[in-house]
């Protein structure tokens, strides 16, 4: 979508165990929202000058929510095993443009940084949570409300943050996530830059050219590292990652572009990378090793602009920040871009070819 930022919680913080602090005070008056979404050249035919396709993509079959743990369907692109996919012909150049020598940063952990939890928080809401109105700056590319987001929903960076201010509400009963970018409480509801609703039982993608609460048009929740996954022993999906700069257009399953750059050596939003199989992870502490193993099998997906190799997760008091710090031993040179074209069944669906 819109912004190039260095995440506020630069991971010198991952070396801290639990930095004491608390958010407090009234919410500040909302500052002007970020610049509007960039025009979005599409990778598909039949779109207009801004890359917009039909008002809605062809829906895919909806699957029952088996307890709704937050997992997408087994055939969803986020859950696709990419260990055998071919390396992209421009992999080396794209990795170099991100930063081959730059270290990975886990942008999540326990404790607080500058008074806010470390990571992108998820607010779990009960079935029947009251839905409230949300006004959008970019309403034409946002899912209309109302949204079941309570007034005290957790905000990325804390109530007084001036960064991306993502808000994610997870309704386990409906098996849906509601995501906002640049979100501020407003009256009895919310004001946001953009917003999207994702049915976790389906493979439906957003319309071509549309953003979401993320620049790529993808779900943020889908790519978060969550402690309950690591506690269970494995992460079974790709992980959200940021890079400093992308080129125009987008790579499936992304639906939105946030760049006018045309350098073919830059990655696009939606680009998939994986940790090379030759990289040893056996000596890493358990929490870091499980994350690294997921990056080998499922990879990472370029979802937004930001500092290089920052992977996203949800804050949790059970994270061992010292263990997560081991991920900083990985550098860009340990990754390779993969060609995902063989997985595509439809440009409007996140379902993968078996």
Automatic annotation (TrEMBL):
Residues 30-39 have a biased composition (Pro residues). Residues 51-70 have a biased composition (Low complexity). It comes from the Bacteria. The keyword Signal applies. Keywords: Signal. Residues 1-28 form the signal peptide. Residues 30-70 are annotated as: Disordered. The keyword Signal applies. This is Uncharacterized protein.
